[in-house]
Amino acid sequence: MNANFLQTPIEYLKGVGPNRANLLKSELGIHTFQDLLNLFPNRYLDRTQFYKIGQLQRTNAEVQITGKITHFKTVEQKRGKRLVATFRDDTGVMELVWFRGQKWIREQLKLNVPYVIFGKTNFYNGTFSMPHPEMELQKDHEKSLRSAMQAVYPSTEKLANSGVTNRVINTLMQELFMASKNRFSETLSESIRNSLKLLSKSEALFNIHFPTSQEKLARSQYRLKFEELFYIQLQLIRKNLVHKAKIKGYPFKEIGKNFNTFYTKHLPFELTNAQKRVVKEIRNDLGSNAQMNRLLQGDVGSGKTIVALLSILIALDNGFQACLMAPTEILSVQHYNGLVELCKPLNTSIKLLTGSTKASERRKIHESLQNGSLDVLIGTHALLEDKVKFSNLGLAIIDEQHRFGVAQRSKLWHKNEYPPHVLVMTATPIPRTLAMSVYGDLDISVIDELPPGRKDINTVHRFDANRLKVFRFIRDEISKGRQVYMVYPLIQESEALDYKDLMDGYESVVREFPQPEYQISILHGKMKPADKEFEMDRFVRGETQIMVATTVIEVGVNVPNASVMIIESAERFGLSQLHQLRGRVGRGAEQSFCILMTSHKLSADAKTRLETMTRTSDGFEIAEVDLKLRGPGDIMGTQQSGVLNLRIADIIKDSEILKIARSYAIQVLKDDPVLRKPENKTIQNTFAQLTKYKNIWNYIS
Ligand code: ADP
Ligand code: MG
């Protein structure tokens, strides 16, 4: 079928009037034949099995039974009448129940003739009953050619209440297949189909809606998932290739004095193998004629900063300026101090620009940027202001990518004639499978190795009932000279309550750890900035031993002497937050501990989170679990990507198919970058359609 047919508005389908059309549009986003065709079932009812009343179990599943109605009665209830039929087979008796449409049903149904009934059963007072069963005379059931496995489509309450039941959707789907004569254009090339032994498009579409067997269904799902993922990958990889071919970058051919002097004489430590590999990847990118667009992933503490510095030095060696942007003032200041210290032996000028930079200083910075006397600018969003103009920005580094949107990323680009090379660093590990889909248009480098000598943080889960033991442990650690964080959840919706928890917690800690022997800091979002700074400083200087805080300490706090992290109500935190919080300790030479305190009431997900935290400290592994628990929708940075809008594939469950789809997409584009070869005509056509009608993410077959 050609694309025009599929673009027909849904109201032109037999059985769809204006009312239904509006419902389908508003409830399911179905505007065209195409949209309906791509409404894939959530699950299937297996109607190949028959049950006997005598064998019914108290499960939640739908069952199919053959039997006869022997009796009807109407039962009066407070809230109205219900119609009850006695239904028998040769093994037992059950009831069929109707709350609506009783008169009609009573007239339609016949006594003592065999029916096939289908539905969910309830069990009450020793009897099974089935409310509003689907029913068919046995002789009709035998004749009907309906497939044994029945599709169940996504629905909404409004649809169901307006009579657009699953059965109606099934009927509409049948109409669509009849109108199209089940001839849908092929969308994958013959060579791919042969190589993976994929079903044809038409066969796959038919079997996804009307499966003729389990086996056909499985192959249809595979084919459609592959196709969906293939075109997303094709789009991403092509964008990347086009970008490389078209977007010229300044080639940094020189590895010169700054880099070499620093690398040979002033590196404060030997780089890990992972760091060396990543630096090499970046050097390759910078040396080519294309603009670099690279994501650097590395867990907290994996040493991304030194990689950033080495990249900056390459830019300087080639006569360009560089900038480094961080999401918060604290982080910017930390970077600034760190880089100034490291660059002392070199002759470079570095400045800091944040929201609190004074106007006079600001003017000086603007000036020196434009006349080229300033080499490196570090700061917050303030870097994006229009007044900030570089004379020749060659490299832009963004730390903690997920806090900046794509728009902000590109804003940096337009500061100069050519876009600068861009390096985006993130400590939020994104599972490879997801990264491939979300950031397929960026190249990815990973630091998957921590610097040597890091001690694993000993992580345990304790119930609130054992608090006294935990306090004793804290006392021991403090007596050894260590410092302790105690973190309380603070979640927007229940802020008042959480705040009370925090203050109660603080008071009990003060009681347990009395002055003057113990000094305690408290830090939360309601405090004035100056008070926060004061409390933070006391803790950093070691004047207080315990820091009671909300999650404000999550980002940018570095106190190596703090070796114990207590997380209160840990069941209320998400995995990535727990991981980030734990990253606050284990920064010094001492063995560090993380204690997750919870009540006894734990959901299954909470148990999994706690178990994961105590089992591993591998950020990528934790991110995988997080992704499985929450789905990609909640993972930062995925909102703009198509991962959310997948129609049939599941980014986690189908990661194997994703890998295969990606490798095929790469193969096709390597061999034929602009899809000009005759054998790729189908792919080119499909691709053009995809981009023509909609955004590619709203996948079209
Ligand atoms: P992040 O990746 O979280 O930004 P940093 O770059 O801040 O990590 O590095 C964390 C700490 O590890 C810093 O104190 C840094 O000096 C140190 N570090 C980084 N790389 C190495 C290395 N190869 N060997 C020893 N210490 C390192
Ligand atoms: Mg960092």
TrEMBL record:
The keyword Hydrolase applies. GO terms for molecular function: 3'-5' DNA helicase activity; ATP binding; ATP hydrolysis activity; DNA binding. Keywords: ATP-binding, DNA damage, DNA recombination, DNA repair, DNA-binding, Helicase, Hydrolase, Isomerase, Nucleotide-binding. It catalyses: ATP + H2O = ADP + phosphate + H(+); Couples ATP hydrolysis with the unwinding of duplex DNA by translocating in the 3'-5' direction. InterPro entries: ATP-dep_DNA_helicase_RecG, DEAD/DEAH_box_helicase_dom, Helicase_ATP-bd, Helicase_C-like, NA-bd_OB-fold, P-loop_NTPase, RecG/Mfd, RecG_dom3_C. Residues 285-447 form the Helicase ATP-binding domain. GO terms for biological process: DNA recombination; DNA repair. It is an enzyme of class 5 (isomerase). The keyword DNA damage applies. Gene3D superfamilies: Nucleic acid-binding proteins, P-loop containing nucleotide triphosphate hydrolases. Belongs to the helicase family. RecG subfamily. Plays a critical role in recombination and DNA repair. Helps process Holliday junction intermediates to mature products by catalyzing branch migration. Has replication fork regression activity, unwinds stalled or blocked replication forks to make a HJ that can be resolved. Has a DNA unwinding activity characteristic of a DNA helicase with 3'-5' polarity. This is ATP-dependent DNA helicase RecG. It comes from Cochleicola gelatinilyticus. The lineage of its organism: Bacteria, Pseudomonadati, Bacteroidota, Flavobacteriia, Flavobacteriales.
